[in-house]
Design brief:
The chain is α+β, with helices and mostly antiparallel strands and about 160 residues long. It has five helices and six strands, in the order βββαβααββαα. The strands form two sheets. A three-stranded antiparallel beta sheet has the order 1-2-3, with no helix packed on it. Strands 4-6-5 form a three-stranded mixed beta sheet.
Length: about 160
């Protein structure tokens, strides 16, 4: 059976390793491997353990915006601080953080924390009461205190 042209491997630095076919026919049997940024994933796990009491799943990909995202929407890194969405077969969710909109680690971790609140609502509440309840819960647990995530700094 002919599934179209042979996919050509492409490596995008640090985030995706996948094959891109010339046509959709070539996608049969292909798998996209999404990888987390090690530092972002480490902070995701700290936030989950200390402030969400391990309520968030561990099989979440946490990464920075990459070329694949830029293909989907022009200037997405300049327009969004970050976003969360359903994941692939290996990941329940995907969290993507913009380096452009979040130039320092304080901002990156604030955005990551924000997206974690979305995950704990199962992406069902867009800044409504359920989201606000998550934000208040982690505030009560001390995430916004000076030094909670970064020594000597606050994330909000």
């Amino acid at each position: 059976m002919n599934y179209g042209p042979e996919p050509q491997p492409i490596l995008l630095v640090g985030a995706f390793l996948f094959s891109r076919p010339e046509s959709a026919e070539g996608m049969v049997g292909m798998e996209i491997a999404v990888r987390s940024d090690k530092t972002l994933k480490r902070y995701y796990r700290i936030i989950n353990k200390k402030y969400f009491l391990n309520a968030l799943p561990d099989n979440v990909c946490v990464r920075f915006v990459n070329e694949e995202d830029k293909d989907e929407e022009e200037k997405c890194e300049e327009n969004y601080y970050g976003w969360a969405e359903r994941g692939d077969d290996r990941h329940k969710y995907l969290i993507v953080i913009s380096k452009v909109k979040n130039p320092g680690w304080t901002a990156k971790l604030a955005t990551l924390t924000h997206e974690c609140c979305h995950l704990n609502t199962d992406l069902k509440d867009d800044h409504g009461p359920a989201f606000e309840a998550q934000r208040q819960m982690i505030a009560d647990r001390g995430i916004f205190r000076k030094g909670a995530l970064l020594r000597g700094l606050t994330i909000f």
